[in-house]
Write a structure and sequence with these properties.
The chain is mainly alpha-helical and 115 residues long. The protein has helices spanning 9-25, 30-56, 60-83, 89-114. It has one domain (4-114): 23S rRNA-intervening sequence (de novo design (two linked rop proteins), Up-down Bundle). The N and C termini lie far apart (32 Å).
Length: 115
Amino acid sequence: MKDQPTQSPIFAKTSDFILWLLHHTDKFPKSERFRLAKRMEDSAFNFYEALIRAVKSSNKRSVLMEADLELDKLRLYVRLAHARQLTSREQYGYAANVLTEIGKLLGGWIKVLTD
């Protein structure tokens, strides 16, 4: 598919992270799949959807600030999953690094709009 937004690194990294996250949360115990895993997945999808809205919006900065909020929520949920021993140190490290990269890309996009 040659959809323009998916060519941007933030879209590619986010899509790859969502695929990793879905695979990972499938392995959570049943009680956590309907609690923490759902929140993690919803925040990841909401973040990606906000990126799509930003591309099509006339008020990109406002939509990107919504995306930033979802990214913060996702970071919290990843930390909680690790604290509850639902992720290994390696899995947590991978997720934290990817979310940091995505955050830098998002910050760069927001900065371009404010300069």
